[in-house]
Design brief:
Elements lengths: L3 H12 L11 H16 L7 H39 L11 H28 L8 E6 L6 E2 L5 E2 L7 E5 H9 L3 E5 L1
Antiparallel strand pairs: 1-4, 1-5, 2-3
Helix pairs in contact: 1-3, 2-3, 3-4
Length: 186
């Protein structure tokens, strides 16, 4: 049976570790059993045990908060693992430490990411070649600048002082060399 201290210890380990921490396979059912027992005690009436009931209510509130935070931390780690797995192809790293429902969630996230990547790749191959994408720089404008015509014949600007905007690289280089703007993101 899980205790309040066990719950707190699970949260502490999860919080201070980058990896998903191992939990017992029956963790969720044991937590719900613990919370159910505490609810029964907290629901009792009587003056004889009012101080104990009050402490139990507070412990129940804290235990629920700890459990929710623990599950939130684990979900964040699952999302991080799914992101890493989608970029590197390595998806089994912390699989052993996942609870059954977390493993299902991870698989569903991975399937969703794979579908989205296939859709994006399909759209890009049909519409845009990466070589055709214009390079941009993000600039902070140091003075007002009127609209100018870009190298592609399209208007660029106008820009106001202290405005931040993405500008084609060649035009950005001109603004920078004339001290009319400075680079924020190259």
């Amino acid at each position: 049976m899980i205790t309040y201290n066990d719950l707190y210890e699970f949260l502490r380990k999860e919080r201070y570790s980058e990896q998903l921490q191992p939990l017992q396979k029956k963790f969720i059912s044991e937590v719900f059993e613990y919370l159910s027992d505490k609810r029964k005690i907290a629901g009792q009436k009587g003056e004889m045990f009012s101080e104990e009931i009050s402490k139990t209510k507070k412990q129940l509130e804290n235990a629920v908060a700890i459990f929710k935070e623990l599950m939130l931390l684990r979900k964040k780690k699952l999302l991080g693992l799914a992101f890493v797995a989608s970029e590197t192809g390595a998806s089994k790293r912390d699989f052993d430490n996942m609870l059954d429902f977390e493993r299902e969630l991870f698989d569903e996230i991975m399937q969703g990411v794979e579908r989205a990547e296939k859709k994006l790749a399909s759209q890009m191959s049909n519409n845009v070649q990466l070589d055709d994408v214009e390079e941009l720089k993000v600039l902070l404008f140091l003075e007002d600048i009127e609209e100018v015509i870009g190298l592609d014949g399209m208007p660029v600007g106008p820009f106001k002082k202290d405005e931040i905007s993405s500008v084609p690289k060649q035009i950005a280089d001109i603004f920078i060399s004339e001290k009319k703007a400075e680079v924020i993101i190259d």
